[in-house]
Design brief:
coiled coil; mainly alpha
């Protein structure tokens, strides 16, 4: 049976091998993607999709035409302790 220190040394060696294999696989995947883009002439929008609009831009487009109108919150008197009920 291997000792604790021997197992740690094996783990470090495996971690290094895994990291190298991952880097090699990533390079191969990137080469495949680049080859497909070159072959078919894909654009960034086709590969990644169209960019989303910013949330602020969406909010601004929703408020166009609603200037001066604010949504009022309902004033609920759940406990009956406001001055209006007196």
């Amino acid at each position: 049976m291997a000792t604790y220190r021997e197992l740690l040394a094996q783990k470090r060696e495996l971690d290094a091998r895994i990291e190298a294999a991952q880097a090699e696989a990533a390079q191969q995947a990137l080469a495949n993607v680049r080859a497909a883009i070159a072959e078919f002439g894909f654009t960034p929008d086709e590969v990644f999709g169209k960019p989303r609009r910013e949330k602020a831009a969406r909010r601004a487009s929703k408020t166009v035409g609603n200037e001066g109108k604010k949504r009022e919150r309902a004033n609920l008197d759940l406990f009956g302790d406001t001055a209006d009920n007196a």
